Automatic annotation (TrEMBL):
This is SET domain-containing protein. It comes from the Eukaryota.
Length: 479
């Protein structure tokens, strides 16, 4: 195993040597330093004011030369002078050409270069040393099976399972693509002495996932030193990050902010991110968070739907729906639900058509109009006279799905803490269950109100045979 820091201390550099690295490589600190916040040393390192700072009256707090930003473009530049990195990127094909693929492969290469057992692979660069300053992040992908069980009924449990499966597929893709490269076969994949394991791939994923920021003109990347700043949302966010006209990364104090000496300089990782995503990507929840904010629940097409196989085949939408807070209320959105609630009698149809190269494909149709993108189905339904009917079907279906989620959470309750369960996963899982249960219960109220409103619709009443004398009307089992 390469040991990217989780199990071996040799890779780590003491944070108090970071200024030396920064100065040597052209990183400019202006009135700040990186280290433990006084009184909160157990939280690790962060960006701290080295003197009193006032927004609008200081130059950028940090200037990071563009060549130090770990982006897809810069990884490609490094590969021009590092044939080993270039070999892996080329071997992994499409994956190596994505931002995520390029960055993770680059990080794995830096860990390889750092390994004392490997002397003749890769080219040293400034970022080889920088990754030694990055702390281990206890993301849920590193939780134990017992800790994962604490997530039963939350939206984080399926997200973590899906992520682990995705990471395993990526790892196998990289291994299969590179096992015929001589040095990879020798140092990475040799059955007896190979150093790279799935745990290493999880480590480089955690490095990137917990520190990736979206910089203007650069896209998703890791920006050294800027990525040491902790998160704070809303008015508590002290600084902004952007690029200047030369492409260098900047950290800028907000104009309305004053930070005293030894005060923390925070940035936002995304104020709109829900509790689940913050734990998933960063392994923490702010103490001030009082709402799950947003949840994604999976949704399936009923087995007794005769169009189920065709719907699954043509669907271009994520199979689920989002429940979220909006100006104090709870709302929902989904492109997938509309494909679930319509049927052949409504106007949904499928045809098998032959392409110009002789292959056959399934074509979805809505009242004879081609439906190449099923996420656009809502637009068609919105203009249909039976729009209120489709909304009511969706509301009833989603209400049932939310009710099932609530029941699962309540069944789990508050389990006893096992000795093998660590404190951080225990606290985070407990908070997430509470926050998501509260949001789901509010969603149930919102669905009930929406259902009541739709039942007052003349279209719905006529469809259900409500309002007249009822004679001759066939009773409709709406559910």
């Amino acid at each position: 195993m390469i040991h990217t820091g989780r199990t071996q201390g040799w890779l780590k550099q003491p944070i108090d040597t970071l200024p030396t690295w920064a100065t040597f490589h052209g990183v400019t600190f202006n009135g700040i330093k990186v280290g433990p916040l006084p009184g909160f040393e157990d939280r690790g390192s962060t960006v701290i004011a080295d003197r009193e700072l006032e927004g609008g009256k200081v130059e950028p707090l940090l200037v990071v030369p563009k060549e130090l930003i770990i982006s897809r473009q810069n990884v490609e530049l490094f590969a021009k002078s590092d044939r080993h990195l270039r070999e892996v990127l080329e071997a992994t094909g499409d994956f190596g050409r994505t931002t995520r693929g390029a960055v993770l492969i680059f990080l794995l290469m830096q860990a390889t270069i750092c390994c004392p057992d490997i002397k003749d692979v890769g080219v040293l660069n400034p970022l080889t040393e920088y990754i030694k300053y990055l702390p281990d992040e206890l993301l849920p992908t590193f939780w134990s099976e017992e800790e994962h069980e604490l997530l039963t009924g939350t939206t984080l449990q399926p997200a973590v399972r899906a992520k682990l499966n995705s990471l395993l597929r990526e790892f196998e893709t990289v291994r299969t693509a590179t096992e015929n490269i001589d040095w990879c076969a020798k140092y990475w994949w040799d059955e007896d002495n190979g150093l790279v394991t799935f745990d290493d791939w999880m480590c480089v994923d955690a490095m990137y996932r917990s520190r990736a920021l979206e910089f203007p003109g650069v896209g998703d990347c890791m920006c050294p030193c800027v990525d040491m700043a902790n998160h704070a949302s809303g008015d508590a966010t002290a600084a902004l990050y952007e690029t200047d006209q030369d492409g260098d990364g900047l950290l800028l104090l907000r104009e309305d902010k004053k930070i005293g000496k030894e005060g923390e300089i925070t940035i936002t990782y995304g104020d709109d991110k829900g509790a689940c995503e913050k734990i998933f990507s960063y392994g923490f929840l702010e103490d001030s968070i009082t709402s799950a904010r947003v949840m994604f629940l999976n949704l399936d097409i009923p087995d007794d739907d005769p169009l189920r196989p065709a719907k699954i085949f043509v669907s271009t939408a994520a199979p689920g729906f989002r429940v979220f807070e909006k100006t104090g209320d709870v709302d929902w959105e989904s492109d997938f639900i509309w494909l679930v609630v319509v049927n052949e009698e409504d106007g949904l149809d499928f045809k098998v058509r032959q392409t110009v190269d002789g292959k056959r494909k399934i074509q979805a149709l809505w009242k004879d109009d081609e439906l190449d993108d099923t996420s656009k189905l809502r637009e068609y339904l919105h203009g249909d006279p039976l729009w209120d009917i489709y909304q009511l079907r969706a509301t009833v279906l989603l209400q049932g799905r939310v009710e099932t989620q609530i029941e699962t959470l309540k069944e789990v309750g508050n389990p006893q803490k096992e000795a093998s369960v660590r404190e951080v996963p225990w606290i985070l899982a407990e908070r997430l269950r509470t926050l998501e249960l509260e949001l789901l219960e509010r969603a149930m109220d919102a669905f009930e109100n929406q259902k009541s409103r739709l039942l007052e619709s003349a279209v719905v009443q006529q469809y259900l045979g409500i309002g007249g004398d009822g004679e001759g009307e066939e009773e409709v089992d709406f559910t």
